[in-house]
Amino acid sequence: MFSFFKSKPAPAPEPPTAEQPAVQAVTPPPPAEPAATQPRPGWAQRLKQGLAKTRDRLGGQLSGLFGVGRKIDAELFEELETILITADVGVDATQSLLDTLQKKVRRENLTEASDLQEALKEALVDLLSPLQAPLDVTPHKPFILMLAGVNGAGKTTTIGKLAKLYQAQGLSVLLAAGDTFRAAAREQLQVWGERNKVTVISQEKGDSAAVIFDAIQAAQARGIDVVLADTAGRLPTQLHLMEEIRKVKRVIEKAIPGAPHEVLLVLDANTGQNAVAQVKAFDDALGVTGLVLTKLDGTAKGGAIAAIAKARPIPVRYIGVGETVDDLRPFDAREFVEAIFSA
C-alpha cells in the first residue's frame, strides 16, 4: 500500500486557488523481486514490428508501384500521389516529395520506376531529419517537463515511460499529478510511480497548477533532477480549458523563471491528419517545444509525421511503438523510414 504524508506548503507568488487541498506525496513501497522474462527483440526489430500497419499501407503499396520493369511516367506519379495522401502523409508533404523526385528524374535522366524507391526513401529522410532532435534534460536542475495533449493521447502512460528512461540515465525523477479532472488519473500515475520507484505529488481535488507548483517546490528541496508534470486532456476547441493550461504554464514560470524547460505535446498516431491541427493549436497556445508520437504500433497512419514535418516542424522527441516502458525511444528519422520500407 502507498504511504501518505502532507508535504510542507510552499508560498506561491500568485496562489492558483483561494483554498488548496492538502497535497500528498506518494512514495512507493520497496520493489518486489523482478519476475523472470523471456528476452525481448532489440529496438530496431520492435520498431519494425510496431510500424507494421503503416508499412503494409505505405511501404507495401510503394514496393508494388516501383516494381521491376515499370517505366517512369505521369501515371506513376499520379499513383504515387494517391498512395502518399491515403497514408496520411498530407497534401503539402506529398507535393514536396513529388517535386523532389521529379527533379531527380530530370537531373539524372531516370527511366525505371525501381530507381525511385531509394530516391523516395532519401527524400523522406531529408523531410523528417529536422524533427530529429534528442531532448537533453541536464541543463537545468530540476528540469521541468510539462506534458499536454487531447484526451486519450497517452500522456500519463508516456510520463511513466519517460520516468523509466530518465532513471536509466542515472537521473532522479518526481511526478506531478496535474490531471485533477479525469477519474482515476491520479491513481494511474501513482501506479507508474510505484513501478518506477519514484514519488508522486498529488491531491485528491483542486487545481492542476497548485499541484504542479507544489511538486516543483518539493523537487527543489529534495535535489530532484527531472519533474514530469501531467495535465488534463483537452480539445483545442475547448477555449476555456486552453486558457486554463496557459495558466498552468504561467504558474510554473513563477515557480522557476524560464520553466517549463520543455513543453511536450503527446499525439496519438491514430489521429492521422488531425495530429497536424493539434500541433498548430497547442503550439499557438503554449509554445510547444517537443512532440511525442504514441501508439504507432496500432495504426496505419504513421505517415502523418511527414505532414507534421511540413506544416509545423517541431522536434519529435520520442516515439512509442508498444505498451511496455521500454517501447518509448528518441526519434531517429532514418531508422523510422527504414522500418517503414523494410520487408
Question: Can you describe what's shown?
Answer:
By secondary structure, this protein is an alpha/beta fold. The protein has helices spanning 43-50, 52-65, 74-86, 91-108, 114-128, 155-168, 185-196, 208-222, 239-255, 274-286, 304-311, 333-341; strands at residues 3-6, 24-27, 143-148, 173-176, 199-202, 226-229, 262-268, 290-294, 316-320, 328-330. It has a 10-stranded mixed β-sheet with strand order 1-2-5-4-6-3-7-8-9-10, with helices on both faces. α2 packs antiparallel against α3 (74-86), α3 (74-86) runs antiparallel to α4 and α6 packs parallel to α7. 45% of the residues are buried.
Keywords:
10-stranded mixed sheet, alpha/beta
Topology:
Layout: E1 3-6, E2 24-27, H1 43-50, H2 52-65, H3 74-86, H4 91-108, H5 114-128, E3 143-148, H6 155-168, E4 173-176, H7 185-196, E5 199-202, H8 208-222, E6 226-229, H9 239-255, E7 262-268, H10 274-286, E8 290-294, H11 304-311, E9 316-320, E10 328-330, H12 333-341
Parallel strand pairs: 3-6, 3-7, 4-5, 4-6, 7-8, 8-9
Antiparallel strand pairs: 1-2, 2-5, 9-10
